[in-house]
């Protein structure tokens, strides 16, 4: 049984888009290592315990076990969404022509987006029990409708 359907679902697409926006915010604002605690505290104040826990779990250094499919999905999508955005920024066509094969090739290049933890990407995909290439395509598809607002639409 797959925990994450490979056909885009509105809730998952929204989650992936929010992740990409958060990554953009982090980059633009230079939010440091305290960002997970800040967002977890804020989410709890808003009554969002389930998503707060998912954010806590995805902070792998905290050593928490996954409790829900959302925990696993956030781990599998967070680093990868940021990495896909980085790939789009160096691709002339941005996300429009980006293929999983290109993303996989960039994953092997440790100098590209060097701060992205590739092990977390691979662990997240394994935890979900999905194919890496299909999951990359899923994330690309989730980001495409938001290409302009994320600045990944390319120059073409």
What does this structure look like?
There is one protein chain. Helices cover 63% and strands 0% of the residues. It has one domain (10-144). The model is unreliable at 1-8 (pLDDT under 50). With 156 residues, the chain is an all-alpha fold. The protein contains 8 helices and no strands. The protein is globular, with a radius of gyration of 15 Å. Helix 1 crosses helix 4 (69-90) and helix 1 packs across helix 7.
Structural class: mainly alpha
The description of the largest β-sheet is:
none
Number of separate domains: 1
The coarse silhouette is globular
Strand content: under 5%
Quick structural gist:
The chain has eight helices and no strands. It is mainly alpha-helical and 156 residues long. It is globular.
How would the blueprint of this fold be written?
Elements: H1 10-29, H2 35-45, H3 49-58, H4 69-90, H5 100-108, H6 118-128, H7 132-143, H8 147-150
Helix pairs in contact: 1-4, 1-7, 2-3, 3-4, 4-6, 4-7, 5-7
Salient structural properties:
156 residues; mainly alpha; 8 helices; globular; disordered N terminus
């Amino acid at each position: 049984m797959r925990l994450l359907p490979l056909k885009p679902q509105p809730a998952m697409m929204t989650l992936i888009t929010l992740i990409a926006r958060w990554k953009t915010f982090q980059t633009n604002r230079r939010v440091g290592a305290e960002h997970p605690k800040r967002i977890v505290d804020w989410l709890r104040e808003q009554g969002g315990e389930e998503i707060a826990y998912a954010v806590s779990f995805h902070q792998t250094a905290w050593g928490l076990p996954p409790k829900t499919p959302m925990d696993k999905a956030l781990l599998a999508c967070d680093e990868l969404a940021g990495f896909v955005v980085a790939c789009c920024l160096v691709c002339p066509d941005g996300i429009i022509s980006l293929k999983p094969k290109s993303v996989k090739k960039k994953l092997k290049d440790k100098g590209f987006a060097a701060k992205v933890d590739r092990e977390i990407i691979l662990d997240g995909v394994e935890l979900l029990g999905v194919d890496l290439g299909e999951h990359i395509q899923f994330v690309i598809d989730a980001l495409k409708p938001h290409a302009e607002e994320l600045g990944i639409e390319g120059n073409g």
